[in-house]
Amino acid sequence: MGYIRGIMWNKLPTWQVFLWWHHFFLLWSTIDGQTRYSIPEELKQGSVVGNLAKDLGLVVSELYRRKLRITSDAGKQYFSVDLGKGELVVKDRIDREELCAQRPSCLLPLELVIDNPLQLHRVEIEILDTNDNSPSFLNKEKVVKIAELVNPGARFPLESAQDPDVGINSIRSYLISKNDHFKLTVKSHKDGRKIPELVLEKPLDREKLPVHNLILTAVDGGDPVRSGTSEITVVVLDINDNAPQFERQVYEANVSEKATPGTEVLHVKATDADEGLNGEIEYFFAEQTTDLILSLFDIEPSTGSVVVKGMLDHETNTLLRFDITAKDKGNPEMDGHCGVEIKIVDINDNTPEIIVTSLTTPVPEDSAIGTVIALISAKDPDSGDNGKVTLSVSPKSPFKLNPSVSNHYSLVTNGPLDREKNDRYSVKISATDSGKPPLTSEKIILVELLDVNDNPPVFSQPSYVVYVKENHAPGNILCSVSAIDPDAGDNAKISYSILDSKVQDVSVSSYVYINSDNGSIYSMHSFDYEKLKVFQIQVQAKDQGSPSLSSNATVHVFILDQNDNAPAVIYPSSAALGSLSHQRMPRSAKAGHLVTKVTAVDADSGHNAWISYKVSEATDASLFTVNLYTGEVRTKRAVSEQDDSSQRLLIEIKDDGEPVQSATVTVSILLEDGLHEPILDLRHKSMVEPSKKTGRITLYLILSLASVSLLSLVTFVILAVKCMRSSRSSGSCCMRRSDCDDYKNPNRNLQIQLNTDGPIKYVEVLGGDMLSQSQSFRSCMSPMSEYSDFTLIKPSSTTDFKEVISVLDASLPDSTWTFESQQVSTK
Ligand SMILES: *[C@@H]1O[C@H](CO)[C@@H](O)[C@H](O)[C@H]1NC(C)=O
Ligand SMILES: *[C@@H]1O[C@H](CO)[C@@H](O)[C@H](O)[C@H]1NC(C)=O
Ligand SMILES: *[C@@H]1O[C@H](CO)[C@@H](O)[C@H](O)[C@H]1NC(C)=O
């Protein structure tokens, strides 16, 4: 039929084609000798199957009368007879598949009956197949599951399509839509069924394409060709063929060392191209991870979050490296790895540490500035600024820090040291780092100073004054001197000694000795004021340092007068006359007649030498009296005739000391008639006496006489003149004009004046015991003065003038003396 189609298909209308078919088969049936018609199925209603009248030999005009009719049921249904033309026409639609199913030939028998005469005719109608059915699949969609690892060549049977048409109109082939992985083969069964099969040509990768959508087409052989399709969905089943992949090879994070447990440090993430369990990832620390890491960090298996677990410390671990493994849950599982670097960020959590590497103590106090005391270093385990340490020392201390190599310092002296002011220093060293906020620590270095003998002993007083009574028992403590030395140890151990000097040509060490340990000074024998009134001791205090230092002090020893001398009668001389002296006086003497003058001296001084005279016994107590102070014996009344010519007076001479010392002298007086005044005699005697006696007696006489009243002054002047004369000739007197001129030197002269309150004038001359003292004294009488006596002292020794002043001042604490230093004019 293909050639017909090729020629006619497009040029002839459909009904003409059918007509042509009708004639062809009709012709063929007739020839066959049977009344048989072949018609294609699905003819239109009214289509003529065949001319019954002609084929059955009937007359058309008779057909009405003979009532030609179809009697078989199937015939009645599909066909009818056109009685006017004698033709068999299609009455209803004829579907061959309905009538004959898949039988290769489909014959529909017809029975025709005609009356007059009744005849039965059998007609066979063959229904010819036309391609009126498309191939179809039972399931329009089909899912094929293929594991992705299946090797190429594997076959997967598909569903065959159905086509009710037969023969050539039934299914001829299958086609598959274009794809990269599959081809189609058709497998023919023995029963003629054709079964399509998918054949894998290239390996599948679910990760690339998990689902392949194919269309299977079945084609029949009819004309026109008919086809049917089915959707084939190839689902690639996952195989765990992908390892988890981390997003990064190495993860980096910074975490503060202060981070508390639970703080998330970082988050790792891996992906797995597989699906399901094969793609479900869990994170773990890699197998070789150290215990340290395990103690410090934790990883959340499901999320990959790394959190702090332990206490981090930048100082022990600055950078931590470890690996993380990601595992899927496939079987077998696959894993992936990544590295992690966690930098632990320093926090200023370490206070600087001060380390004293070496310390020299004690330090001599005379150490030069710059002497190294200690080597100090600072340490701070923090890094960067947090570990940058600066050291400082309290600015008030005499020390400073000299930086040397990194973080090392030397502590050196920065000023003079004085152990006596400060025997130890607590040097406060502070270390501060540069962190924010900075941390500080302190250390106190105790520097002790070593004593150097730089202080001499110092006496408690520059000079000492001691008063000691004469005649005291030897061996007593005179005084104690003491000195202190601010140094320490042997440098402060003081020993006392007495420096050798001479006192009255004798070494002072024979007078006193000193306890070298405590400075107590002892006398070695008693002193006699009359011989020695004052002396100095040079005391030295010496420490035991090396070299030792010493200092001196002066001890002034004043011997205090004791009343140990009784008054000595000078006149009337008892020695010559055996305590008896005869005085003559005229009987004509009136009251107040000076009979004689008793003169006594006392070797003591002061009150102990303050002599008073008293009549102790008298022949006639009413006749004579003795002046208490001057010793002048005078008549109380005029001598009468009745008075005994020989009178006797016992005069007691007392000093004012305590206890009182006394002496007596007996004066015998002869009353004579016609005698002259005995003054000249007295004067004569008095004038004679001094020239004979020693200078000492002369002086005493002068002094005694100078203390007499106005009357005596006349005598004194005469005596003075006499003395001046005699001294020129003999040189034994103290008065010399040139000597007086010497005293013009203002600084070397001392004038001592006695207040003239009382009737007695008494001059005390320091060191006046000219026998025992090496000093010499000279006196000059001022002619201008009647009532005052001057004694000029010129110390012959080299004793300092000021010292003498102070000595005098100190030695006469209660005196009524006034001291005047003046330039004496004796012209
Ligand atoms: C860590 O800190 C350093 C400097 O302190 C910086 O250069 C680096 O980028 C930081 N890293 C991270 C992961 O933040
Ligand atoms: C010094 O030592 C002596 C003897 O031990 C003692 O008698 C004296 O009192 C001491 N002097 C002082 C001032 O302690
Ligand atoms: C103490 O006196 C001695 C003897 O006179 C003398 O050598 C010494 O220098 C004096 N010492 C002081 C500190 O004055």
From TrEMBL:
Any single GO CC term annotated in Swiss-Prot or TrEMBL for this entry: plasma membrane
A single BP term in Gene Ontology: homophilic cell adhesion via plasma membrane adhesion molecules
UniProt-recorded name of the protein: Cadherin domain-containing protein
Domain of life: Eukaryota
Keyword Protease in record: no
Keyword line: Calcium, Cell adhesion, Cell membrane, Glycoprotein, Membrane, Repeat, Signal, Transmembrane, Transmembrane helix
Origin species: Amphiprion ocellaris
Membrane topology of this protein: Single-pass type I membrane protein
Function summary: Potential calcium-dependent cell-adhesion protein. May be involved in the establishment and maintenance of specific neuronal connections in the brain.
Signal peptide: 1-33
GO molecular function ontology, one term from the record: calcium ion binding
Cell compartment(s), UniProt: Cell membrane
